[in-house]
Amino acid sequence: MPPNPTPSDLAKFAAARRACRYVESGMKVGLGTGSTAAWLVRCLGRMVAEDGLRITGVPTSRQTADLARKAGIAITELDEAGALDLTIDGADEFDPGFALIKGGGGALLREKIVAAASDRMVVIADGDKDVATLGAFPLPVEVIPFGLETTRRHIARALAGADLAGADVALRMAGETPFVTDEGNRILDLHLGRIADPRALSDALNRIPGVVETGLFVDLCDTVVIGAADGRVTVRDRATGGETVDRVETAEAAALIA
């Protein structure tokens, strides 16, 4: 017997289900990585099977690619797809200016490349990810293995001159060994507490040799869809500054778990 959806599951499902309204047949869609994005893939898979939706998905990780195949979604590589109509992805945090922290699942590099190749990026999340200032969630930075400790020292120096609440730099582990990204790199998690200027910090970190990319997504997100466990959904649009409230039926979540 499959488990019943938790309140967190239902909130993530609500955001994902509402975001499906942006997807139309014939679209090329970037598929994000993480627990909320997994709900999106399941919802889209059901639309493919039951409603005749025809899309081409571009997964941002091997994990998402496997899930999309199981859901019956046609997938391809980004270079094959070219420009994308839309990317829908989760976030670890988002602020009022639509800046994001992403990379908790370790796919930040592919996620950023796919988002930048899209005409529109929609972020799906539960209300816990909505923050006044980024930084409570550790900021992931993808780095190459060569010279890792040297890169870490350069990052620590860069953090010393930034407006932050902390500056701890930790190598992400997977059990007893370092976590390895799909590109064969490592991740340093920066415990900063508060990031006063996400754009400036992103620019400073990306100038460091050895840094591949940061989990700060600035000027990429166009719309945020925030789900609640009762099916209520809040949609915020960056272009208009508007906010609307909607509702979805959450009963489908249990069937998707099954």
SSE layout and pairing:
Blueprint: H1 7-19, E1 28-31, H2 35-51, E2 56-59, H3 62-71, E3 74-75, H4 78-81, E4 86-89, E5 93-94, E6 100-101, H5 108-116, E7 121-126, E8 139-143, H6 148-160, E9 168-171, E10 173-174, E11 177-178, E12 186-191, H7 198-206, E13 211-214, E14 216-217, E15 223-227, E16 232-237, E17 243-247, H8 252-257
Parallel strand pairs: 1-2, 1-4, 2-3, 4-7, 7-15
Antiparallel strand pairs: 5-6, 6-14, 8-12, 8-13, 9-12, 10-11, 15-16, 16-17
Helix pairs in contact: 1-2, 2-3
Can you give me a brief rundown of this structure?
It is built from eight helices and 17 strands. 31% of the residues lie in helices and 25% in strands.
